Amino acid sequence: MNKGQQTTTSDLTETAETPSPARGKWSIAEITEKLIAEPDQTPEDIAHFLKVHSFARLIAELEGLDADTKEILEVTAILHDISCPLCREKYGNTNGARQEAESAPLIRAFLTGSGYPKEFIDRVVYLVTHHHTYKDIHGMDYQILVEADFLVNAGESAKYRKLLPEMRERVFRTESGRRLLEEIYPE
Ligand SMILES: [Fe+2]
């Protein structure tokens, strides 16, 4: 056999481990565990973001989202309520506008050393700082994040359940998100 055609084990390993440009050094599991380990995260905070991440990943897979956008979405879903402990401490509540205003520096600090490129982190920051803003939703990552968060919030709070008709009519856009909304919260 021509030596140039041989494939060695080290070649295969190298190929398998070569990251795509959007992949960071930290895995989704590592980011999840790192946030769980933050001392101000309550059991309720942790359960909430795990549920939102699970719905976001489910909708992303049902919708056939591309791998890079899915990774942005998954990191965002984990970190989307990162400012809740600070807002509870500082304002006594987790009002959406305050959460959005307080999130950016917390996310940038959390992802320092993650290995994610600047554009990736900028998009995560943008999404987290807009996830309670239901108008001008652009991008599948934004759309799915809003749907996943609402699917969870409606199960956790009567205040959000009251918004079901409006959310069904005006906000839910993905086919699988709309199906999940109907299956979980039938009209
Ligand atoms: Fe949330």
Structure characterization notes:
There is one protein chain. By secondary structure, the protein is mainly alpha-helical. 66% of the residues lie in helices and 0% in strands. It has one domain (25-184): Hypothetical protein af1432. It has helices at 9-17, 28-36, 43-62, 67-79, 84-91, 96-110, 118-128, 140-156, 158-161, 164-170, 175-184. Helix 6 (96-110) packs antiparallel against helix 7. The protein is globular. Residues 1-19 have low confidence and may be disordered. The structure holds fe (ii) ion. Fe (ii) ion binds at residues 48, 52, 80-81, 149. Residues 48, 52, 80-81, 149 line the site of fe (ii) ion.
Task: Provide a quick synopsis of the model.
This protein has 187 residues and is mostly helical.
**Global structural class:** mainly alpha
Mean pLDDT: 88
Number of helices: 11
The total tally of domains equals 1
Give the names of the bound compounds: fe (ii) ion
Radius of gyration: 19 Å
What proportion of the residues is helical, as a percent range? 55-70%
CATH T-level fold name = Hypothetical protein af1432
Q: What proportion of the residues form beta strands (DSSP E)? A: under 5%
CATH architecture: Orthogonal Bundle
Overall outline: globular
- The CATH superfamily is identified as Hypothetical protein af1432
What order do the helices and strands follow? Answer: HHHHHHHHHHH
The largest sheet, given as strand count, sense and whether it forms a barrel, is: none
Unreliable residue runs: 1-19
- The span between the termini is 67 Å
CATH top level assignment: Mainly Alpha
